[in-house]
Design a protein that fits this description.
The structure is a single chain. By secondary structure, this protein is mainly α. It is extended and about 40 Å long. It has a two-stranded antiparallel ribbon. Helix content is 48%, strand content 9%. The protein has helices spanning 4-14, 20-30, 34-43; strands spanning 50-52, 58-60. A hairpin with a 5-residue loop joins strand 1 (50-52) and strand 2 (58-60). The protein has one domain.
Amino acid sequence: MMTREEAIPIIRERDGALDPLCVRDFCEFCGYSEAEFWAIIDKFYNRDIFYKDEYGRWLLKEPIWKE
């Protein structure tokens, strides 16, 4: 068990981060290009809570660590 304050830095560091090797292996297994994979993933982001920045990254509109 950990407190909210202990968990927030861990969430901030790891939330939304996919291992590039896992993505590549998954794409090879399924027969997708990485561009196709990301195009599919983009369709499932909840735009009520995420926005896409100028670099194409999905970010939370109201991250827990800014409360």
